[in-house]
Design goal:
Layout lengths: L1 H24 L3 E2 L18 E6 L4 H11 L4 E3 L5 E3 L14 E2 L2 E2 L5 E6 L9 H18 L6 E3 H4 L1 E2 L9 E2 L11 H6 L10 H4 L4 E2 L2 H8 L47 H6 L2 E6 L6 H5 L9 E4 L2 E4 L13 E5 L1
Parallel strand pairs: 1-4, 2-7, 2-8, 3-7, 10-11
Antiparallel strand pairs: 3-4, 5-6, 9-10, 12-15, 13-14, 13-15
The chain binds zinc ion.
Amino acid sequence: MCRLSEWAARAVTVLACVSLCLSASALEISNRYRSPRNMERRVRSSTRLIVLHTTEAPARSSLNKVSDRGECHYCVTETGQIYAIVDRDREAFHAGRSMWQGAEDVDKYSIGIECVGYHDKAMSTVQLAAIRSLVAELKRMYRIADQCVVCHSHVAYGAPNKWHPFKHRGRKRCGMLFAMSSVRRKLGLSSKPTFDPDTRAGRLRNADEYLRRVLYGNVDTMAAAYGVAPKPAAPKSAAPKSFVQRPRPKLVAPKPTAAEPRSIAELKARGYVDHGAVTKERSASKIAGAAWKSPRTYYTIRNKVIPGSRLDPAHIEKGMHVWMRK
Ligand SMILES: [Zn+2]
């Protein structure tokens, strides 16, 4: 009885909370996938970060998974629909093994937003607009600065394992695109973290150089998709003005990358050298260093060629050969 009435009282609070949120922000938030785990979760004592994730799966399965497990506070689909999963003031289990500025277990002090999509694929404008509105509302509520809106890959870290005998950043590339300038502009975010506080302090070591360049460098593979193209070159022709065709501003499609090598013969033809096989003692990162997950490092096994950027660390096999230039 008592539990029931307590539950009812909480449900009323939750409903009140959602409608308050609605009236304050005009955001349409659905409760259809509210997590059954919600009431088990502790209320957070602080909220310092907003962590953006990519589900790496289609909407239906993503929503079912995050709801069943209580893995985020909100989930935003490709059509821009926002679902509330766990109450925003409670802990959701979204960040896993994580650390930021020396503070472990980021779930304890962050809000997690799962965005249906992939860490290396552009999202629709309507989805980005919904994420932007939601983030703006949460930033306002919790007084969170732009540089505290981070990606899961900023904060996730890996425990020492057979590939990395040290605690390392680069366990995940989840949400990686949200660190790119063109995407942040779409989200209305004017700044981002400029360095990794935990690798700088020596608490972690970097294990994914490509990810580091996306998070803290200028790598922006989404720029073309969002129409941020390099300025067209000035016409060189000395022809009279009326003959100069001015390039019309337009969305520039991403430049197709050179086809990836598909065989050992092609690797060799492009100047790649076999740096030997991965063994228990000789990990991929020992062989290739920080470039072990670079798109320019390749792995071969059973005549398959896999670029480092698509290598799943959980499926590195003994006997995989590492190919690099030089
Ligand atoms: Zn994630």
